[in-house]
Design goal:
100 residues; 69% helix; 0% strand; single chain; mainly alpha
């Protein structure tokens, strides 16, 4: 799945289109919001109407992502390669740990 690239190489390429400080902040908050929305959606199978909250979180997370890219002036990397949808999570984790 990684296409003969290390995860560090994927993260480095992802980082090149996430240089603007506002884009980085938007992704720092948007990516975990999307991740939480998935967990809340799954919990929604057990609790009524929780999926509405999950949907709102999902939309907010993606809105932050696209606002960030508007400031960056570059399209999201996943437009060119769907695998960047998963690299974004790795980038976020590396950023939180001071490695990106």
């Amino acid at each position: 799945m990684l296409g003969n690239r290390s995860s560090e190489q994927w993260i480095a390429q992802y980082s090149t289109s996430h240089q603007h400080p506002i884009n980085r902040v938007c992704h720092t908050f948007g990516i975990p919001t999307i991740l939480v929305s998935v967990a809340v959606f799954l919990a929604g199978f057990f609790y009524n109407r929780l999926w509405l909250f999950a949907a709102a979180l999902f939309v907010i997370g993606w809105t932050l992502q696209f606002i960030g890219h508007a400031f960056e002036g570059k399209p999201p990397e996943f437009f060119s390669d769907w695998r960047f949808l998963f690299v974004g999570v790795s980038w976020w984790w590396a950023k939180i740990n001071g490695k990106a």
